[in-house]
Amino acid sequence: MLLNKSEFLFNRAQQFIPGGVNSPARAFKSVGGIPVFFNKAKGSIITDEDGNEYIDYVGSWGPMILGHAYPPVVKAVQDASFNSTSFGAPTEIEINMAELVQRMVPNVEKVRMVNSGTEACMSAIRVARGYTGKEKIIKFEGNYHGHGDAFLIKAGSGALTLGQPSSPGVTKGTAKDTLNADYNNLESVEKLLKENKGDVAAIILEPVAGNMGCIPPEPGFLEGLRELCNRHEAVLIFDEVMTGFRLARGGAQERFDVWADLVTFGKIIGGGLPVGAFGGKKDIMDVVAPMGPVYQAGTLSGNPLAMSAGLAQLSALENHPEYYVELEEKTEYLEKRMRLLLNEHEIDYDMHRVGSMTSIFFTSETVTNFSTANTTNQELFRIFFHEMLNRGVYLPPSPFESWFLANSLTYEMLDATLTAADEALEVAKA
Ligand code: PLP
């Protein structure tokens, strides 16, 4: 596969953009090589600057659940743009969006639109703190909630109980309010709650982890967190930026029948435009300005183009429950056959799938959390990734990312992916 133009563009980009990309995950750091530059996509076929076509399993990292350039989304954006790209004043479409979100996710009694998943999670934490009057939060190692300071904190090593900033520029002062627990380990959460009795405002998590590969919650984990939050009067926040409107109309909450106090959204809710949202119980959301004292704002929040795109995509999902069934069947088809291939090639692996999220770990361990995810053979993934890319399959360029399937994938595309995987595994294991 020739990537001449991508290479040229990447060299040019690096002169003007840090690392040549506007978000680090795009830079191919974990797999090496030149990041592919794209210029168009339709459905599940994405075309690069050199004219190469790929079957897309990234879907812009999740938003494109119905495929790229989904006609109702394209039309909605076109139509809205003729009436102004922004008002900075209230519009009816924002109410339509809030009502639709509430229908699809019934415990979101009130919702505030923002411009990214990061903003949604930052705001949810502030609201939880304002509501409870407490300052600390518990998050989980290997979960990602965007680049807000409070989330860029890793667990202290060994005997250190205090978290450490995981990025320069994040202060130690911030780090002291973020506690890290072990995913799928309720005891680690109970321990932190005990050590910080009366100080924990919120527990935030990805109800299905998608940022250390795809890792499902073990039975009882989400229920246990719900119970701990009730007992300790902490706000339970589900970060459904990836899982929202993907795992079911009501996201992971509906799929697992565990209901959080606050939920954050991103990705699918914007139909590919920059949208995030946070919402939940009325009494909590009513602390948000201008109703309440917790400040939160945005010049472009509820932007008409973004709302139109999101509304078009969510409406399609609301009106076509069969899309979820089809998408799950397709993902299961891929998973089952991929497992057979991995077995045939006698490669150590663990593979998870929840709905249309899946990923492969090249390891002999059972992957349930950050430390077991880290046992994956990254070199094997690197080779597998490039062999797949060369055969026209665009996977997330990291072993620690979930694959996002779209309903625009056809069984022919899935079969082509499996043929490519068979060959790629043959090379990778050598
Ligand atoms: N939360 C989760 C679970 C995510 O996966 C992401 C991004 O991938 C975010 C939050 C941050 O969203 P954004 O990149 O829109 O700021």
TrEMBL record:
One of the Pfam families matching this protein, by short name: Aminotran_3
Catalytic activity: (S)-4-amino-5-oxopentanoate = 5-aminolevulinate
Source organism: Rhodohalobacter mucosus
N6-(pyridoxal phosphate)lysine PTM sites in chain numbering: 267
EC number, as in UniProt: 5.4.3.8
Keyword Cytoplasm: yes
Similarity annotation: Belongs to the class-III pyridoxal-phosphate-dependent aminotransferase family. HemL subfamily.
UniProt enzyme class: isomerase
Record flagged with keyword Isomerase: yes
Subcellular location, record wording: Cytoplasm
Keywords annotated in UniProt: Cytoplasm, Isomerase, Porphyrin biosynthesis, Pyridoxal phosphate
Pathway: Porphyrin-containing compound metabolism; protoporphyrin-IX biosynthesis; 5-aminolevulinate from L-glutamyl-tRNA(Glu): step 2/2
Name assigned to this protein: Glutamate-1-semialdehyde 2,1-aminomutase
InterPro entries: 4pyrrol_synth_GluAld_NH2Trfase (IPR004639), Aminotrans_3 (IPR005814), Aminotrans_3_PPA_site (IPR049704), PyrdxlP-dep_Trfase (IPR015424), PyrdxlP-dep_Trfase_major (IPR015421), PyrdxlP-dep_Trfase_small (IPR015422)
